[in-house]
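Wed. Picked up where I left off yesterday with Tctex1 domain containing 1. The coffee machine is broken again, so keeping this brief.
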Amino acid sequence: KVKVSPRTSPANQIKQGDRKREKGGWNIKKESSSHLNLKTCPAANSCKNKPIKLISYENNMYHPQPVRKFSALEAQKVMRSVLEEKLKHVRYDEKAGARLTVDLAESVKDAVRALGYERYKLVCYVVLGAVRRSEISCCSRSVWSPVSDTYAEYCFKNDSLFALCIVFAVYYE
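Structure written out below (tokens, as returned):
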């Protein structure tokens, strides 16, 4: 449904030099959250009485802070359940390890995304290795906002393998 209403209210009649709103313009509103304004062209004779389409999207607004901040604790619980479910009885295999890490990363990312945090980009990093008397060092670097961006981590270990999983949550402003 489309509702058409003329702009006759004195509150909507903005000064004459304002090119975005003018007297006698038409406002076409859709029932969705975005709306479309059609107004006459204010320029000289070249475009006299030709409509200009001005589109404003109310949903696509700049939000410097998240409405619901990403909870690392909540994400860690989800990561733990996914890794324990998928790796509980798995033995380390060098050949199957590459495919397993990709599957784990996708499963964890989908499960964390299902928590419903809006406007967050999720990056999932999984390291899979054999349990031996050796050490591993991992490092990651990025530029982010300490106010809205964060990460969650969980390390799973059984008799033959370990899996380190880190989910980075970066907020889109």
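Quick read: Residues 151 and 168 are 4 Å apart (CA to CA).
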